[in-house]
Specification:
- A hairpin with a 4-residue loop joins β6 and β7.
- The strands form 2 sheets. Strands 3-4-5-6-7 form a 5-stranded mixed sheet, with no helix packed on it.
- The chain starts with a strand and ends with a helix.
- It has 3 domains: 114 residues, no CATH class; 72 residues, no CATH class; 52 residues, no CATH class.
- By secondary structure, it is an alpha/beta fold.
- The chain has 9 helices and 7 strands, in the order βαβαααββααβββααα.
Length: 247
């Protein structure tokens, strides 16, 4: 068995997968470790047994790039197994929706896509001043490693303000010109409130419609685990109570 350590990124996995392919290492011969664990082999030092130039289809690259952001470590062996099978077994493998590996990879990608959607919907910025500059911070708790995929949206939408989005899965920073990324942080790093929060709470309370209240549907679209990161969520319990009491 060959043990290889991979950093938590598609780029890192792709390089290792390429080295394993050229050495003709089958998926069941590889044990995938995370970067904090010590691997026994450097894939790049494996004997090259094939000079074949591999042509990987764009649909696999897109699928793998998304699945690589999933929270499960099972993504790495799954993606290498899919890649190996695409090359040596069936180039049209991704069209077989009943295939277990294809199904699992697509489910991972779908879960990541949903996480990105919730990332865009649930981030709330707080204004602070630092050395005379206006800065905006937000704390978000994504389920998957979606910071790098989700945050370009905010750079496009709020390109005129300097901001940082902090999370336990990594952080993103916009300086008006370039989006950069840094390691994960604890929530203690995030400001608690800003001058606009009272206005936001008043606005949320004004648009709340008790006659359209569907608690199960709301919790599905706005999972309870996100409530503590949203300023308007402090009102949810009281608004639900008042709606039930007919107030």
């Amino acid at each position: 068995m060959i043990q290889v350590a991979v950093e938590n990124s598609f780029k890192s996995w792709r390089k290792i997968a390429r080295d394993l392919l050229t050495a003709e290492i089958e998926p069941n011969e590889v044990v995938w470790l995370n970067a904090s664990q010590q691997s026994l082999f450097e894939p790049s030092k494996l004997e090259t047994r094939s000079s074949r130039i591999y042509s990987i289809t764009p649909d696999f690259i897109e699928l793998a790039h998304a699945a690589a952001c999933h929270n499960s470590d099972e993504k790495w062996p799954l993606l290498y197994r899919l890649l190996f099978r695409l090359i040596h077994e069936n180039r049209n493998l991704l069209e077989i929706e009943s295939d277990i590996d294809v199904r699992d990879a697509r489910l991972m990608a779908k879960s990541v896509s949903k996480d990105i959607h919730k990332f865009h919907a649930f981030v709330r910025f707080r204004r602070v001043e630092c050395d005379g500059q206006e800065l905006f911070f937000a704390w978000h708790e994504p389920h998957h490693f979606t910071v790098e995929l989700a945050t370009p949206f905010f750079a496009r939408r709020f390109g005129s303000m300097r901001f940082s989005i902090l999370s336990p899965k990594g952080c993103a920073h916009w300086d008006l010109k370039k989006l950069t990324f840094s390691p994960a942080v604890e929530k203690l790093s995030v400001p608690d409130s800003d001058d606009t929060e009272d206005f936001w709470l008043a606005y949320y309370k004004a648009i709340f419609n008790p006659f359209r209240l569907k608690i199960k549907a709301m919790k599905k679209e706005l999972p309870v685990r996100h409530w503590r990161t949203l300023p308007e969520a402090v009102l949810i319990h009281s608004l639900i109570r008042d709606a039930r009491n007919g107030q």
